[in-house]
């Protein structure tokens, strides 16, 4: 069948309903007009959360029709843009149909009676809870204070001036970017006034409204992986059941570590031979099951191998016991050796719906996301380490989603189109200062594996992290008389040998003895970093001076531009 015959055959089948799995699961409706729509499972986690709140009931009991979305299909578009949310659900279907032309409305109403639609609705009703659990992302609001350089300048002005004079001063105002001037609403306001009208700074401040472009920052929450955690130190002889399970001779073995909740035990066995005393290690799981080590042998040569074996067994048989806390969706891409891993999302909730399907998080109008963790440097400083900053929305450079038609009829770029990374770094600095960290550190382009910021000429990642963000941090260090230095942080897992000892924590030496007296976990981490200098990664970082920390906490996050 040639192409013309094939197209004629497809046209003859229109309109039709068809079950689809790509670009998402649902039922597609192909209309005679050439437009295509689909009824699909809810993809918008933030809308699901709002829906639950509006219904004043538990999230799991939201009505099924409200969990099915109407989307429009664009099969010839880029793979990630092949569908867009219409703003209507199965529950608001009557309103959706009114937005269509009459022939399209008639065709969809007839196609809704097809067997494919009934099968899909039955499937979604049966599996709604499981599917929702995979899609659902709880968002914990983060309290941030915002600042505007334009508002700061206006607060310092006195007296009345003509509208034309105000307009000229605002347009030429140094240190305030054009995005801030436009999105404040002042430029359209002053341009609409008669040039001779007298206005005070208070009059202008009353008309400033940044709410459409003021992000709401959330900490992503969800189910955390069930981890074994630290084992506790003990020294006791083996019980009769443990002797039977391990085959150890009484008096030649002892339990040196145990887990009080899951009953994992690390056993040190001493053997005498021609070379003298040798120590070997065994691990018993709950039920006195003897575990194998890295080389598929029951006798292990180090405590670290025992702990890895216990962790593997726990993940396999008890990993389903999840806890609720900070999301760990992208934890596998984090630098090892850190703690308090977090994923921060900045959403434009009051902005017109422009971006609905992010690659990393399925929430609407997600401006950018930041992944951070907490690290200890070789000098003992506690820094907030920026694992990644990324804007799926603005880095796509898609004109359909980054252009905004303003009420005055002009087509403008999205705010932060070229300098979104400044906003991400500013938010991270505020979070670090609020958490009483000594400063921030930044991942380098070479540490990340895959390009995420395409740019002509230079490597995208190096250009973003080492170039643009690096220049901003250097400018901050010179302005605030603080140090921009290279920090050595641990780039390996430091939990292998961390154990609970008394009221604190300690490390195990190679022979299974405590390497330090019981200390706080932060002190132990500093000790580990200082001890393993050969396994450190050097990254750029900015330490907060007292003046910079005070400015960050008192003034808040600059909505546009940087800290001044």
Structure commentary:
With 564 residues, this protein is α+β, with helices and mostly antiparallel strands. The strands form seven sheets. Strands 6, 10, 16, 17, 18, 19, 22, 23 and 26 form a nine-stranded mixed beta sheet that branches. A five-stranded antiparallel beta sheet has the order 1-2-3-4-5. The protein has a five-stranded antiparallel beta sheet with strand order 11-12-13-14-15, with helices on both faces. A hairpin with a 5-residue loop joins β2 and β3. α7 runs antiparallel to α9. 31% of the residues are buried. The model is unreliable at 1-11, 51-62, 132-136 and 450-458 (pLDDT under 50).
Write the layout of secondary structure elements.
Elements lengths: L2 H10 L3 E5 L5 E5 L5 E6 L3 H10 L13 E6 L9 E7 L3 H6 L3 H10 L3 H21 L2 E4 L4 E2 L1 H7 L4 E3 H9 L6 H6 L2 H7 L5 E3 H7 L8 E9 L7 E6 L2 H7 L6 E6 L6 E9 L2 E10 L3 E2 L12 H16 L4 E4 L12 E9 L18 E11 L5 E9 L1 H4 L3 H4 E3 L5 E3 L6 H15 L4 E4 L17 H20 L4 E7 L7 E4 L2 E4 L13 H11 L4 E8 L2 H10 L1 E2 L6
Parallel strand pairs: 7-27, 19-22
Antiparallel strand pairs: 1-2, 2-3, 3-4, 4-5, 6-10, 8-9, 10-16, 10-17, 11-12, 12-13, 13-14, 14-15, 17-18, 18-19, 20-21, 22-26, 23-26, 24-25
């Amino acid at each position: 069948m040639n192409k013309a015959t094939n197209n004629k055959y497809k046209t003859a089948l229109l309109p039709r309903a068809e079950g689809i799995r790509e670009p998402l699961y649902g039922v597609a409706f192909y209309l005679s007009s050439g437009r295509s729509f689909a009824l699909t499972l809810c993809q918008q986690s933030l809308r699901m959360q709002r829906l639950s709140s509006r219904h004043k009931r538990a999230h799991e009991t939201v009505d099924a029709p409200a969990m099915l979305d109407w989307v429009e299909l664009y099969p010839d578009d880029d793979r990630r843009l092949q569908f867009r949310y219409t703003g209507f659900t199965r529950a608001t279907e009557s309103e959706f149909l009114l937005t269509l032309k009459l022939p399209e409305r008639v065709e969809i109403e007839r196609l809704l009676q097809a067997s494919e639609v009934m099968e899909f609705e039955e499937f979604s009703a049966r599996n709604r809870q499981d599917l929702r659990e995979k899609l659902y992302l709880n968002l914990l609001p983060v309290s941030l204070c915002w600042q505007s350089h334009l508002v700061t300048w206006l607060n310092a002005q006195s007296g009345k001036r003509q509208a034309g004079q105000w307009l000229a001063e605002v347009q030429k105002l140094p240190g305030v970017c054009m995005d801030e001037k436009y999105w404040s609403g002042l430029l359209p306001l002053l341009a609409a006034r008669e040039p001779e009208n007298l206005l005070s700074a208070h009059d202008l401040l009353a008309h400033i409204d940044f709410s459409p472009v003021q992000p709401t920052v959330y900490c992503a929450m969800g189910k955390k992986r069930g981890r074994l955690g630290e084992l506790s130190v003990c020294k006791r002889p083996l019980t009769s059941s443990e002797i039977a399970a391990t085959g150890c001779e009484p008096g030649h073995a002892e339990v040196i570590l145990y887990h009080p909740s899951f009953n994992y035990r690390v056993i040190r066995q001493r053997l005498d031979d021609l070379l003298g005393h040798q120590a070997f290690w065994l691990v018993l799981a709950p039920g006195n099951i003897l575990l194998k080590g890295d080389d598929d042998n029951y006798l292990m040569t180090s405590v670290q191998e025992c702990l890895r074996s216990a962790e593997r067994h726990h993940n396999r048989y008890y990993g389903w016991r999840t806890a609720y806390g900070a999301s760990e969706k992208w934890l596998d891409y984090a630098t090892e050796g850190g703690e308090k891993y977090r994923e921060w999302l900045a959403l434009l909730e009051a902005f017109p719906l422009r971006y609905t399907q992010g690659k990393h998080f399925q929430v609407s109008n997600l401006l950018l996301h930041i992944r951070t963790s907490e690290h200890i440097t070789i000098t003992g400083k506690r820094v907030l380490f920026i694992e990644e900053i990324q804007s799926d929305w603005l880095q796509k450079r898609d004109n359909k989603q980054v252009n905004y038609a303003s009420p005055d009829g002009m087509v403008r770029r999205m705010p932060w189109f070229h300098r979104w990374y400044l906003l991400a770094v500013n938010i991270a600095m505020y979070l670090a200062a609020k958490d009483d960290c000594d400063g921030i550190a930044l991942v380098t382009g070479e540490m990340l594996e895959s390009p995420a910021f395409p740019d002509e000429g230079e490597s995208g990642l190096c250009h973003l992290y080492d170039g643009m963000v690096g220049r901003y941090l250097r400018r901050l260090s010179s302005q605030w008389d603080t140090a921009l230095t290279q920090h050595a942080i641990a780039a390996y897992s430091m939990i292998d040998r961390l154990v609970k000892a008394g009221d604190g924590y300690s490390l195990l030496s190679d022979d299974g003895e405590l390497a330090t007296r019981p200390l706080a976990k932060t002190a132990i981490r500093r000790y580990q970093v200082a001890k393993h200098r050969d396994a450190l990664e050097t990254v750029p970082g900015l330490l907060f001076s007292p003046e910079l920390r005070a400015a960050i906490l008192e003034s808040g996050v600059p909505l546009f531009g940087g800290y001044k």
